């Protein structure tokens, strides 16, 4: 065989290999199909939720100013006491069916005994507290933030969407079932922490009580994710169920130097050293990685996405860099792929012409499930290297949660009911913020975070912001979802 013939042979071989690779890629792409839905939904046994009455009840709940502050001494404890009395008054059948306990002062644990005590219980969660309204912004609200106004199909006020809407919807569901004589087959637990907004102690105290009693829930459902009406992958609605949440840690970074007059500065000041350290830390970001809940979400949504997206997801072994670049094109997308860091607070001199003896910065980390607080600290120490700074955690870091199953019976039930309630495809997701359910990971088999609330991406800013509100339709959808979940999972 001469040189020309050998060249032609190699060319045919390479072309054949290329065609084979293309064929495999296309075959993998065609195999991407939406997962088959579980079995049929069992018919409801109780009357439908009265949406107008539920909306009125949520409006009343908003009027209790259960605002948690970083300093607990600023909390108005009487507001929680009034909320608790109101719950007993508004939901008499539920309170007759369930045992009520006050834990850690203001947190509530309800137990609805099941017929079969050998089955593991189910734990449903919400929280009672709300964040403050920024001083001076009250006049920017369309309706007063604590009036609980029901108007034009909306319930207005602080806590309507985070998280008194969930609390009221759960109690509406429990009340309708209890009034109809429903008794769960397995025990139901309702946990309503009192200080979730400050990553507080209420839910942790409940978890400790359950652990001490030997109770290990089959699954936990809390707030955390919802139905995004304009999801960027599908350009349509997607019901996202949180299967994990990031950890939370704040690093205190301190640089020290002799103080003095700013007219005679030394070659290196505390502020200059601090600036170098911040730059070194933020200049060494955690790597973006296409794995974990983000990859699971993309796999679930790809069958409903464009051909290009399907091709890339089905062949991530080849297109992973492209997927990473596309997902990380926005800050929220990038946060799905790695541990994030954000300098948030600075302290220095009390006066412009005084050199501080200590300059302090705080950097907030949201830790990806594949990382840990210890790993974060090790990376930070390597970044600052020999700079003369002190590194300490501000309080105790919260580790990221374990990743819950998307193959368990609990997931199958939740996914089916979420699809039914929202009319949208379902996908697992990573919760970027923090919820009370993080403390239940040590006692529960699986922890999920979802509410069937439909919102557009541009509406998410009202949560914790001005004009927080929840539509009456969304509240009704939540209450019906919880009622059917109780019937399906605990009936």
Notes on the protein architecture:
Strand 4 and strand 5 form a beta hairpin. By secondary structure, the chain is α/β, with parallel strands linked by helices. Helix 7 crosses helix 12 and helix 13 runs antiparallel to helix 14. The strands form 5 sheets. It has a 6-stranded mixed β-sheet with strand order 1-2-6-3-7-17, sandwiched between helices. Helix content is 37%, strand content 19%. It is globular, with a radius of gyration of 26 Å. It has 2 domains: 282 residues, 3-Layer(aba) Sandwich (Aminopeptidase); 146 residues, Alpha-Beta Plaits.
Short note summarizing the structure:
By secondary structure, the chain is an alpha/beta fold. It has helices at 3-30, 51-62, 77-90, 92-97, 164-179, 202-212, 270-282, 292-301, 307-314, 316-327, 331-335, 373-384, 409-422, 472-490; strands at residues 99-103, 107-112, 122-127, 150-151, 154-156, 188-193, 219-222, 227-228, 238-245, 247-256, 260-261, 340-347, 354-355, 358-367, 389-393, 426-431, 446-449, 454-455, 469-471.
Any key phrases for this structure?
alpha/beta, Alpha-Beta Plaits, 2 domains, 491 residues, 19% strand, 6-stranded mixed beta sheet, globular, 4-stranded mixed beta sheet, 19 strands, Aminopeptidase
How are the secondary structure elements laid out?
Elements lengths: L2 H28 L20 H12 L14 H14 L1 H6 L1 E5 L3 E6 L9 E6 L22 E2 L2 E3 L7 H16 L8 E6 L8 H11 L6 E4 L4 E2 L9 E8 L1 E10 L3 E2 L8 H13 L9 H10 L5 H8 L1 H12 L3 H5 L4 E8 L6 E2 L2 E10 L5 H12 L4 E5 L15 H14 L3 E6 L14 E4 L4 E2 L13 E3 H19 L1
Parallel strand pairs: 3-6, 3-7, 7-17, 8-18, 9-16
Antiparallel strand pairs: 1-2, 2-6, 4-5, 5-19, 8-9, 10-14, 10-15, 11-13, 12-14
